[in-house]
Design a protein that fits this description.
This is MarR family transcriptional regulator. The protein is of the alpha+beta class. It has helices at 4-16, 25-32, 39-51, 111-117, and strands at 22-24, 55-58, 61-64, 77-85, 92-101, 104-109. 34% of the residues lie in helices and 30% in strands. The strands form 2 sheets. Strands 1-3-2 form a 3-stranded antiparallel β-sheet. A 3-stranded antiparallel β-sheet has the order 4-5-6.
Length: 121
């Protein structure tokens, strides 16, 4: 992931694939930190997601509007062996989990962080 535009598109895809119907803004930002830690880019992603009809924001809560676009662990997440640092927690990992989105790949993540990013934990 190199450009701001690529990160923005990955963030939008991540929001489009949220499994939770409702999250707090803090929970949403925690997930988006897998893509970017830039507050301005995070705001852009949230604003664009709302404009595209992916989410609704109200009173510090975020509601998803897409439904049924979940990431499948077997086909949308690939595992690769190697020497990686988890993109979420920074831990050294030997198996990286990568989410395959149309706009690009997000990862690597360790086994527990991939579940947290996807909202399974």
């Amino acid at each position: 992931m190199s450009t701001r535009e690529e990160k923005r598109e990955l963030g939008l895809e991540l929001l489009a694939h949220l499994e939770d119907e409702e999250l707090s803004l803090a929970e949403t930002i925690d997930r988006l930190e897998a893509v970017t830690t830039s507050p301005s880019l995070t705001r852009e992603i949230l604003d664009d997601a709302e404009k595209r009809g992916l989410i609704e924001r109200e009173d510090g809560r975020l509601r998803t509007r897409t439904g049924g676009t979940f990431v499948r662990m077997g086909s949308d997440v690939v595992q690769r062996e190697g020497d990686y640092d988890c993109r979420r927690c920074g831990a050294s990992i030997s198996t990286g989990h990568f989410v395959q989105f149309e706009s690009g790949e997000l990862g690597p993540f360790g086994p527990s962080c991939i579940r947290k990013v996807l909202g399974r934990e």
